[in-house]
Every structure is written in C-alpha cells, then in structure tokens.
Amino acid sequence: MKGYLISVEGSDGSGKSTQLQNIIAYLEQKNVDLVVTREPGGTALSEAIRGLLLDARYTEMTAKTEMLLYAASRAQHIEQKIIPALEAGKVVVTDRFTDSSIAYQAYGRGLGDMVTDVNEIATGGCKPDLTIFLDLPPEQGILRKKQEQLHIMDRLELEKLAFHEKVYAGYQALLQKEPNRICRIDASQSIETVFVQIRKQLDFLLGF
Prior knowledge:
Layout: E1 4-10, H1 16-29, E2 34-38, H2 44-54, H3 63-87, E3 91-95, H4 98-108, H5 113-123, E4 130-135, H6 138-147, H7 161-177, E5 182-186, H8 191-206
Parallel strand pairs: 1-3, 1-4, 2-3, 4-5
C-alpha cells in the first residue's frame, strides 16, 4: 500500500493546531494507519534543534544559520521518521514542512533560491502529496496569537509585521506555483466550515 504525506501550513495564528486535531480525529475514525509529526521536530534530535530555533533569547541568529538549522532538523526527520513510515504504507500528517522554509527563509529572510537548494538536499526530493494551506492575513494571525491565554510568543512570532507580510507573500507565491498540491482554505471562516473543506480534500486523496 502506498503511503501518503500530508502537510498543514499557514502563517502564525492561522488555526493550524485546531485543524490538525480535527484531521487526526477524522483519520483515526477512518482507521487510518497514522503518523502525526511536526517541523521543526519529530525526532529527539530534531526537537533539540527546534528548541534553538524558537528560543526568543537567540535574537542574534543569522538568516543563513536559521535556514541551515531548519534543514538539519528536516534531514533527520525525513530519514528517521517520515520515509520509514511512508515505506510502511502509513499516512503521515505533519505540522509544517518545506513550504514553511520557502515562505519564512526564502521570502521572509530574503534568502531566495538557496533555500530551495538546501532543502532539496535535506529531503532527497520527498514532497507532500497534499498540502493544506490555511490562509489568514498576518495581522489577523498575530493578533490571534497575542490574544491566546498563556501563550508565550516564540522568536519568529516576535518578528515585526513586515516580516510576516513577506512570509505571507511567500505562501501566495507557492500557491500559484503548485496549485495542484497546495489547497488554499480561507482560515477566517468558522472552525467547522474550514474543516468541512479540509475533509473534502482528505476524502479525495485517500479515497474515502
């Protein structure tokens, strides 16, 4: 049986966490052999790198260092967790994948095509079969994050609005480039309405 890789993307505050829980519950209900993971992270080593990347104390981190740390985390994640799961015929659902690096580092940090080149090495060409992009303008997303109780803003969330606008532009560019893989969903709608649209995409991909 063929495995499937599904990624969930969106700007900070777009509702990824909520919809990921909906996706997991739905696929478990369908008795899907499921692996749930996240980026950066997913393995012990990758999670350690995540801690460095999101730690708000490391304001001196350069753009290229950030890019390479994300790629290092992803390379470990791919080889140790994602590829074995796909080869075993499982459905892998990941909170973020390479599109985040393109949006945040290529566009947000202005590093351009080198981000794609580095991630080609990190992934060995592995790409999602379906990417759910929760589309929400950055000013709305950051406002949501600030209003969350007990939420501590990480290093990237603390960036100025101009940075998040560049990230958002990166996602829009990716959507235009790969409309067959990336499914845009208006994340300003109700949680229920958003998930109905996500469910349709899951059903189509997995043949439910």
